[in-house]
Structures
1.
Amino acid sequence: MDVRTAIETRRAIKQFDPGHVMTEQEIDALMSLAVLSPTAFNFQHWRFVLVRNPVLREAIRAVSWMQPQITEASLLVVICADVNAWQKEPDRYWRNASADVREGVVAAIGEYYRGRPQTQRDEAMRSCDMAAQTLMLAAKEMGYDSCPMDLADFDEVAKLIRLPEGHVVSMFVALGKRVREPWPRAGQLPLDEVVRVDGF
């Protein structure tokens, strides 16, 4: 499947086949593509929690508006952000670069992020969002459907998955085989309403 087709046919699916099991090879392939997503300074802020335990899935569903995708999808991925990735041995993100490039980038990291907690969080969340889109498009190419999800008490979810300090839950992505066609698209806004040239 080409990228354009994947984008055009990707939909937020709400009903999955609860009996379908993804293979370990498929899951590994998906996650190997997800970690190629872009991140600022190559921080790779994302941490992917693959929720497989059915009891844990039920507990997450209970604090997420009882959305059925959480328990019926073949795979539930809780995408979390390491907000402090920028200061965790940042030279390791550039280990394959030449020494002069690595030193310059690491210096810029500290200068840009130090003392700017909102920027740190925003950057980590952007990274997670891009990884979620990569997951969904890769899944589509592999013959799977997906659903990006929020509508959850993320503080409770964080407790359930034992999220470490300095991390936040960004979103869920449910993946699996759809059991029914999605509704027609609700309606895209026209380009002339959402696209501007050189400002508003």
2.
Amino acid sequence: MSTSTSERATAGARPPRAFVRRVVAAGLPTGPVSVDAVTEADLDGLPPAAVRYLRAMGVVGRPRTWSLRAHFAGRFRRGPDQAWMPCDAWQYNSAVEVARLYRIRLVMGRVVPMWGWDTYRGGSGRMRGKVLDLVTVADGSGPEFDIGELTTWLDDALLLAPGMLLGTRTTWEAAGDDGFRVSLADAGHTVGAEVFLDADGRPRDVRTEDRWADLPGGLTRAPWSTPVQGWTVVDGLPRMTGGAAVWHLPDGEFRYGEMTLVDLRLDVPPGR
């Protein structure tokens, strides 16, 4: 997939200045609450599939992850009948205070740039999009976005940094031999997802019904999934190579995003 943008899409690339400024301005926590390592005792009482997942993802023996910064490149489309657009995305997630700042750059018609921001902070979610960073073409907030953005934070943690999930906010439930359900509570909201594992105990798909699709008739609650492209090992830890974002609508699946994970940094202070 092409990423014909002016922002570099290579491992080790610097985050865009606008992204760094926004993350710094958010005033998020700059360090962990605790540096104690996760032990086998911390997994007591969890469903067997969840324990297998946490072990496979290298959580045991390491401190809980308190933040992540990720860089993705790929393609995105706004509708089933619309063309794919190259895209480049950066995000910063905090677990000390549940927060997510996600910036995506799209190129429409391979010429016109569009920037989008998805954010979750203090229980409030928002989605904004601007063409040429001047003309607002999307601006969404309200209960649906609060729940949807928190659900996306949960999906990120499940796929990128499961050490973020070991705490009092999270509830785990059994769902067969190769999966489990997980719920996350924050700021009066509770969201959930079901995780399906591969033979090695790593996620092959995450599915939820706690998001709303922006359809011609308005916001519609619909099943949403993030199938994983594959896995590799970086610095001794499993890392997804990429994946997709899919709406499961009454008239069929709408695969609207395909992304490669370019870079992932854990436990990074905001703005670093």
3.
Amino acid sequence: MPEVLVQYEAEIWGAIGETFFMVGISIVAAIFVGLPIGTFLYLCGKGKLLENRFVYHVLSLVVNVIRSFPFLLLVVFLIPFTRLVIGTAIGTVAATVPLSIIAIAHYARLVEQSLLDVPKGVIEAAISMGASVKRVIISFLFVEARSGLVLALTTSIVSFISYSTIMGVVGGGGIGDFAIRYGYQQFKTDLMLYMIFIMIIFVQLIQMFGTAVAGWLDKR
């Protein structure tokens, strides 16, 4: 192991733990909030089961506004809200608030797109069998779109890792913050490159795992 990694081993593991914590919370938020919102967006769309153009356009606008914010500006903009929710705007826990919000918006839009790929005939068949809206969603929509939903989540997780590197501005820590503070600012280019390599490895493993799971679920 390179000497510089041995020297900062404890700090590196701490940074990795902070990244996993921030990204983990954002994944939970994406699944338990972003998935329902994305599904509702789909259902309220034109010609869908709960068609409501007003609700669709309002909710779609909110999602688009959040996604269009430069993430650094979103973090700063949400400082008062983060302080209200967490009690502080500084630290790893506080960093999960803006990360979770962007995660919800990001995944919600990808969920809607994945559900739009479900053949219209599948929904029509479910309705003809007398399935309720809830049953259509659980037994037909999600089943048909499961592969796309997994790939969408995989893409989102990669984005969450990228977003987490910015959280050093609010003391969130993580690998990206470590690379900047200990590598770039102290002119230790080798240390910074090692951190970048670690991030690349994480992203590759996540993408490979997500693609494999999506392939296994795709029964078409």
4.
Amino acid sequence: MITSTSNQKVKRILKLQKKAKARAQEGVFLVEGLRMVREVPRKRVIEVYASESFLERHGDILEGLKRITEVVSDKVFEHMSDTKTPQGVLAVVKRQEYLLEEMLKEKEGKKPFLIVLDNLQDPGNLGTIVRTAEGAGVTGIILSRESVDFYQPKTIRSTMGSVYRMPVLYVEDLEETIKKMKGCGIHVYAAHLDDSRYYDEEDYTEGTAFLIGNEGNGLRGEISAAADRKIKIPMYGQVESLNAAMAAGILMYEACRQRRK
């Protein structure tokens, strides 16, 4: 059992918790908590760290993972954890790599249904969008390179497990990516307040991509200009805009409703 916070394995976990570069170099991310560890695909688990008290209460959860499980004292686990009230278990998980070309294809009779995020900055918003996207039947999420790190701990927690199932891809040139979408017959809609039709006046039953912008500044001009059409959500009172995750959720579920029928 590891009992010292100076242990090299403990230091590595802390580095992975805090440094996006370290996570990217190893091609991994961390998940914490009973539910997140229980749901992770076993073939993608690299290592597990469990506190002594967690093993006493929930040792059966780690069945099949004992070979790659490190036991640490409760005090050391608190030091390693990124949460205020640690549950006593975390795992190092291998990232799943995705290709743009695969995202743009029709699969199993399903037309592409994509969310495209332009410089989104809030980890909670991204996690909520990923979780909502899975529920609404979205087939993939594409982010500009300047967007928040999908693999940081707060974002991962916000996905509530959808991180394991929702394809997520960063692209270097979002404008060029939109051109490729259109070349594959995907209709691209920019969430925008100016010169826009209402979102529920469009047909989303074919290949569809929604562009969602930065929380403070919205979509960049060149990105919204690359869309086929601008759409807006009706706003009353003195409210000027909605939270990015809320707006994305409304658009996703309108497309979900249309496709269900």
